[in-house]
Amino acid sequence: METRWNTKGSSARNFKSGLSLWLILWLVVKPGGVAACPKLCVCYPMPMTVSCQSQNLTIVPAGVPYDSQRVFLQNNRITELRADSFGFETQVLWLYGNNITWIEAGAFSNLRVLEELDLGDNPSLRHLEGGAFRGLEKLQSLHMHRCKLATLPHDLFHKLYSLQFLYLQENQLHFLQDDLFSDLVNLTHLFLHGNRIRTLSENVFRGLVNLDRLLLHDNRIRQVNRRAFRDLGRLTILYLFNNSLAELPGQAMKDTQGIQFLRLNGNPWSCGCEARTLWEWFREARISSSELICTSPSQRRGQDLRFLRELDFVLCPLPDPGSLAGSTTTTFSTKTRWWFSKNKPASSSKTLYQKSSETVKAFPFNAVKPQYPPKTPAESFSSKYELSEDEAALPKVDQEEYWTNYGNEDASIRCFELECPPGYDSAFSSSSSLNICLPLLHFLSLSIVTFSLHFLFG
Q1: Nearest to residue 116, comparing CAs of 180, 166, 159?
Q2: Do residues 302 and 426 share a domain?
Q3: Sequence-ordered strand ranges (E) for 264-413
């Protein structure tokens, strides 16, 4: 009996040992008898990971398990990616830090469930085929930073409907084609900083209806179309600092209704009439903004564009609604016409004008505050807002009267385009109708008297 029991126990142990060995072999051997882990690589189960980093590989290794969830091929010397380079299905693929110079169209078409693709830090990758990312309809994150890309094909991101993060910073992009991102309806983060972009056209960001943050700093942007941001209603962060912007149309910013953090510092802002629409937008916006230091004209150099006064734009024409670049026409504003129609003298002590409801914008956590934070109204306005010679020569208006009529000028205008005669007061009061009737009554009375005298004395 004892011998029989030992035999049964031995058989049970042998069965368990055989089962364990079979499980180990199943984990490390691919069905079909092919080794699961490629040469020079290390494999980890749960989730299935193949790590071949820093092995001086020149091609994508063969034998990567088909069901590998993560494949790490970074920091090698891979030079080309062909359509047959990937015979496996994975979710994460890292290829950064290689010497990739060419990616064949359809190179990733077999990676149907790929969610993250990192091609960054490939300094020899200067050009991409139009269909390079064809088939990656589940891709969520695409890294192509520091690759020296000069241009992007118009259909490069075609049908990448799931993409949420796109990293294109620190390349050599000179321009962005219209509708380049039109299929990226779910993109939330777009990083384009550190390139050489010069202009932003009307349709450059069309389709990015869910974009949350857009980084365009450290470029060479000189012009922004006034409709460039028309689809960016959900944008919360916009960085345009360290560019060559002298002007930014206020209409462009009006389209970013959800903006919360804005950085525009490090640009040569021109604070003449071309800045009026942006200044008006800042008056209504409630955002965290960097400073905007004026470089011209000379009398406003060093001032912050956001804190200019209404009087600084009193001679400015209205923006041309038909101009996509925000240029101006020669039609004077209602405020200008009202100003020149006033000739009431004010006391010499009232040479500074302040709007009591002037709003000071908050500064973001990473923005540098101005060197002149306002302390008291008198000190602030006397140091920052000295009248220029042109402003000093304008007719003086009583401060209280000016702000009492502020915003209601249209109801009082009776002559246009500076055609009011000297001494004409265009701000009609409630008794203006009586003033018009008095000469008529006087004329009728004089006619009656003349007729009576003629009747009496023949």
Answers
A1: 166
A2: yes
A3: 269-270, 288-289, 294-296, 317-319, 328-332
Domain holding 416, by residue range, is: 268-430
- The Cα 136–Cα 133 span in angstroms is 6
Q: What are the tokens at 334?
A: 């209602």
Note the pTM of the prediction, 2 decimals.
0.65
Last residue of a domain, one of 172, 202, 224: 172
- Other CB atoms within a 10 A radius of the CB of residue 157 amount to 24
Q: Is residue 222 part of a domain?
A: no
- Say whether both 272 and 164 belong to one domain: no
Instruction: Report long-range pairs for 166-171 (Cβ below 8 Å, ≥24 apart).
Output: 166/142, 166/190, 166/191, 167/120, 167/142, 167/143, 167/191, 168/144, 168/192, 168/195, 169/145, 169/193, 169/194, 169/195, 169/215, 170/145, 170/146, 170/194, 170/195, 171/144, 171/145, 171/146, 171/147, 171/195
Beta carbons within 10 angstroms of residue 394's beta carbon: 15
One digit per residue, the tens of pLDDT, for the chain of length 458 reads: 444 445 445 555 554 455 454 444 444 444 433 447 998 999 998 899 999 999 999 999 999 999 999 999 999 999 999 988 998 889 999 999 999 999 999 999 999 999 999 999 999 999 898 899 999 999 999 999 999 999 999 999 999 999 999 999 999 999 999 999 999 999 999 999 999 999 999 999 999 999 999 999 999 999 999 999 999 999 999 999 999 999 999 999 999 999 999 999 999 999 999 999 999 999 988 898 999 999 999 999 999 999 999 888 888 876 665 555 544 333 333 443 343 444 433 433 333 333 333 333 333 334 443 443 444 333 333 333 344 554 444 444 444 443 343 333 333 333 333 334 444 344 333 444 444 455 566 666 666 766 666 666 65
Q: Which of 172, 193, 220 is the last residue of a domain?
A: 172
Selection from 103, 183, 171 nearest residue 139 by Cα: 183
Which of helix, strand or coil describes residue 198?
coil
State how many domains the chain has: 2
Q: Do 167 and 275 sit in the same domain of this protein?
A: no
Half-sphere exposure of 153 (CA within 13 A, CB side): 14
Residue 277 sits in the same domain as residue 422: yes
In a domain, 305, yes or no: yes
